[in-house]
Specification:
The protein folds into two domains: 6-215 and 321-343, Alpha-Beta Barrel (TIM Barrel); 219-315, no CATH class. Helix content is 37%, strand content 18%. It is built from twelve helices and 14 strands. Strands 1-9-8-6-5-4-3-2 form an eight-stranded parallel sheet. Helix 8 links the parallel strand 8 (180-183) and strand 9 (202-205). The radius of gyration is 19 Å and the shape is globular.
Length: 345
Amino acid sequence: MPLRTPLCNLLGLDVPIFSVGFGEGAGPELAAAVSNAGGCGVLGFSSVPPDEIERRIEQTRALTERPFGGNIIIAALDHPDASEENRADAHARIATVIAARVALLVLFWGDAAAFVDEAHENGVRIALQVGSVEEAKRAAETGVDVVIVQGIEAGGHVKATESLWNVLPRAVQAIAPTPVVASGAIGDGSGIARALALGAQGVSLGTRFVATEEAWAHEHYKRRLLESSAQDTIFGELFDVGWPGAPHRALRNKTVEEWEAAGCPPSGDRPGEGEVIGVRHLPWGERPWHRYEVGMLSPDFDGDPEYAVMWAGESVDAVREVKPAAEIVRDLVRETEEALAAATP
């Protein structure tokens, strides 16, 4: 099979291409489409209640017999300001995914050590996304099956402090033989070929898979991705309501422009702070969305989407068309094979 790496054998994949579980936007339709195309689709569970997690896993299994994963951000487990309720919610989500015995549990922004044994006892492989070589070493020492190494070019919340292309080869060398998956800065086959050449056994793409027919993302968001370039992304901590102190990369929008026009004031003095910019009609309940709040801009949002955060990485340069996810996987495989062939003497 094309592009097979040892990681493909470990997880039962045809190609080592993963879609990111970007919150509610990464639902059953997207995960199943990526998995059916030979990759590993990943569901987003970070803000999803356990009963809805169970439903989404069942729905995905109805759409594919191939392996897929589930992603959960675990920052609340270590954050000093997190409430006991938030910590309990994170534990409940993880327990639900493990009990459902999905192929892969993907964790981010924390320590996976407490969950490795339980996952393995239930036949679940576990991955941790990290932002540095030091964090990669700690992850490998805990016994995770896969380490996802993120670069600062990535969209959404970013733990990395340097370019993927700097940290990736060092991490691969430091934790061998634990397989490494590259994340951030990759939106096409040339990027995948480059990551594989540096020792990665797979790639995890987020921005590229938001611009798919199956992603549960607002049409305005998808359109903005097509119109934008890397220079249209901002990196910082502007969107911090709900998760303070967590750097991220997103598209410039009205919120950014009005904040800059006000002189980039700190949190507490920003224009429109506390303002409700719209309402989300989620399957598990309706709730307001405030300016500067974190979240996934999905079709259920009722308001001006230009005030809501739209996560995007520098790989947005490669996003010029909304396509079915399976077609994107096929495009990526073809482009990667062409790039690898061109690099072969």
